[in-house]
Structure formats: C-alpha cells, structure tokens
Amino acid sequence: TTAVHALGSPISSKNEKNHPISSQYSKAMSAAAQKTIKEICRKPPRHWVGDAFHVYPVFANKAFTSELSPFLMFDYAAPKEFPPEKNPNHRRGVGQHPHRGFETVTVAFQGEVEHADSEGNSGVIGPGDVQWMTAARGIIHEEFHSTEFSKRGGIFEMFQLWVNLPSSKKMSKPRYQPILAKDIPQVPLAIVGKSGDENDVVGNSDSDVCTSTVEEGYAKIIAGNFRGTEGPAKTFTPIDIWVVSLLTKQKEFELEFVEGHTTLLFVQNGSVEIQGKALNLADVAIMDRKGTKLTIRATQKNTSLLILSGEPIDEPIAARGPFVMNTQGELQQAMTDYQRGTHGFSNFE
C-alpha cells in the first residue's frame, strides 16, 4: 500500500529502518538542510540611552551592515530595577527625536514604555506587548517609562530592533502598530527525538520530530510564520520575529526557516547550545543563509531566545544618527527636512 504526501509524491508505508539506502539518503538530506553558524558575537558592554534604557548594543560593529540585512540595530535592556521617581516633573526616557527610512520594533517584557509621536499616535505597552513604528518618510517621537511605572518603580526589561525598509518604501506614509500580548499567538515547538505517539510524528522514524507541550517549550509569533501560524505584525518585506521559550534543558528543538534569509539567534535569558557551541546572555549567533533547519538545545531551564529571520534587502545602506537611507544625498535631504520641519518632521505637544 502506498500513501501520498501532501505535495503529491508517494510515500512508502513501510518503516524506513528496513530500507538502509532510503534511511541514509534521508539523513544526508536532513544534514544538508541544517543551517551552520557563521559567527558568534559575544555580549558587548552596556551603555545608557537617555536615563531609562541601560542597553546591550547587541549588533555592535555589525550594526547597519548588509551582513545582517534587513536588520539594522538591536538594543536589549536586560532586567534592571528602578526606584520610584520622586520628582513629578522628571520623566525617565528619551525626548522628542526624528527618524526616517526604517522601522522600530519595541517589545516590553517587564515594566512599561510610553510612546507619543508627530502623527498623533500615543500609547503604553506593558509586559509582552509590542510597538511597531514605521518611520518611513519621517516622524518625530518620544519614549519614556510610563507615568504609572515611574511612580511605583520596579524591574524594567525591553528590547528595540531597527528594521530597514526597501528604497521604494522609505518615503511612504508613517504607520503605527500597537500589538497587545493577548493578540500574539503562542505555538508549541518541534522536539527532535523518538515519539511514542504516532499521531505526533512529523519526521522520519530515524529522527522523529514531534510537537512539544507548553511545559517543554513554545514560541510567541510577533511577525512572520512559525509552523503554519502567522504573527499579527504587518511587514513590508518577509520577516520572522519569534520569542522562543525553552522551559526544559537537554531536549533538542528544531526550528525551520526560509532558504536564503538572514537568521539571527539572540539569548535573552539562560543559555543554549548550537552545534556544540554555547551561547549565554546577550550573545547572538549569525547563521549562514544556506539551509532551512536549525537544532537547538537549552543548557539551562527557562531559557529565552529571540529569533530574527528575514529576506535581505540588496540595496546600499547609508546611516547617520536617526536616519537610514540609500545614499549620502538622501541623508543630507533628511537632515534638511528635519531642520525645516517638513515631510513629517513636526514637533508635537
């Protein structure tokens, strides 16, 4: 009896163990599909952004390079306790400043971030919430600890990622996407290993891949697609942003990506092993663009990762301060527009 794969190709119903040539071919194909580590960037020194965000500049000297395209810059504010603010006239954060030519993605894990901009958008994001701001042709915004969080104090943790826009979209209209934690889907991971339940098996019998329980590991899908589930964020180019939780150690989990995409793995908490190499807090692994699969293993319980993957934008990158364009002339025009208060650059109350 012959079964038919979803794509139409026949699959033998016999166990592959009885067919060593088929088994060896399957293993070879699996190995060929595995991504390899191109480089590991270790935790950089922290610095302050304003007086609210004590961050690791994760990409360090690789920020704003084509190697990490479409991702430009990544700041991670590890958990830090702030006392209650005693001065009612002082706000911890960064005041009004401009952006053009890219997007900022801010995710709060602990504490609250308050945002306002020249397009009239404003709001507060709390634990698990996301603020996705498309600066595009120009915007002025501000970012502070929320008023309520400043009053009570507490642990603050967040990250901000800058995502490039293709030249055709750099002068489009700004956009603001507030995404609440409750609207971000959570999906179980794929575990590599034997499965006792035939209904869970997705891979072949030599290296079964089965679905984890939420007690073992899961991913929250901010953008892109993970195991058939779409994230809520709207993007201009194909991008995956997943927050992955590995709750048990020593189990191998398999992630799948699009061939040719830039793929980065960042350790938010705990530690993980990839291809025999250990990554710890604020380390980031840059993966080779070849291959579609990656096997990871937590070496500490409750390890948290941020996975970034996206289609490279094959265009020149010209960056200066808060502007990211394609040419030096476009950067100069951005600064002129900002100084004149035109093309989206207007202060707000």
Write the layout of secondary structure elements.
Blueprint: E1 2-4, E2 10-12, H1 20-33, E3 37-41, E4 47-49, E5 53-57, E6 71-82, E7 93-99, E8 102-110, E9 113-117, E10 122-125, E11 130-134, E12 139-145, H2 147-152, E13 154-164, E14 175-179, E15 186-188, E16 190-192, E17 209-211, E18 217-223, E19 225-226, E20 229-230, E21 239-246, E22 252-256, E23 262-269, E24 272-274, E25 277-279, E26 284-287, E27 293-298, E28 303-310, E29 318-320, E30 323-325, H3 328-340
Proportion of β residues?
Answer: 35-45%
Distance between the terminal alpha carbons, to the nearest Å? 72 Å
Largest sheet: spatial strand order: 3-26-23-28-21-18-15
Instruction: Choose one word for the global shape.
Output: globular
Largest sheet: 7 strands, antiparallel
- Which residue ranges are poorly predicted, with pLDDT under 50 across at least 5 consecutive positions? 1-29, 194-206
Helix content: under 10%
Mean pLDDT: 89
**Total beta strand runs:** 30
State the oligomer. single chain
User: What structural class results from the helix and strand content?
Assistant: mainly beta
Question: How many distinct helices?
Answer: 3
Structure description:
This protein has 349 residues and is mainly beta. It is 9% helix and 44% strand. It has 3 helices and 30 strands. The chain has helices spanning 20-33, 147-152, 328-340, and strands spanning 2-4, 10-12, 37-41, 47-49, 53-57, 71-82, 93-99, 102-110, 113-117, 122-125, 130-134, 139-145, 154-164, 175-179, 186-188, 190-192, 209-211, 217-223, 225-226, 229-230, 239-246, 252-256, 262-269, 272-274, 277-279, 284-287, 293-298, 303-310, 318-320, 323-325. The strands form 7 sheets. Strands 3-26-23-28-21-18-15 form a 7-stranded antiparallel sheet, with no helix packed on it. β29 (318-320) and β30 form a beta hairpin. The longest helix has 14 residues, at 20-33. It is globular. The N and C termini lie far apart (72 Å). Residues 1-29 and 194-206 have low confidence and may be disordered.
